[in-house]
Amino acid sequence: MFRLLIALLISSCTCGRAPEPTQDAERPAEVRGAIEERLITELSPSDDLAGRQRNAIINRAIDRNYDVYAAPEGYFYEVLDTGRYNALVEGDIVSVHYVGTFLDGTEFDNSFRRGTPLRFRVGDLIPAWNLALQRVRPGARLRILTPSSLAYGEEGLVAPNGDTLVPANTSLEFLIEEITILEE
Fold it and tell me: What pTM did the predictor assign?
């Protein structure tokens, strides 16, 4: 009982960031089953890196009960809140908060923890972000699951001090929120 209470207290703490939706608890069993059934059809028998990463992404979505959809470019996305006004376009200067994780759930980056949103021009980041952000509007919340080819690829992501933040050929998950268009 004590462990359950501690777990509930920890999970209810936003610790400086917006809470992630508790998808499993919010969706009825029949909806969860329909999502899983739809995603299973996306699995493909493949021994190459792209096929293995696609299947790992789909399995992550099924395990976490994410209602993701496959984009034609190869990443998966779930719009958690559509936002308002006009859709973002390439060249827009935006500010966002985000959490980046590996598919096992291990966090590798978190703008909330830094206390500073990321500011950038749509089109200047990894391909999955550039493409997915154009599906939403300011104020949106978006989840992206991307293969390495649309993230940091064969080079991975290395910090200026030489530390490897994202190993080569690693699929990633991002939760992007608090999207705001900035003036130039």
Answer: 0.82
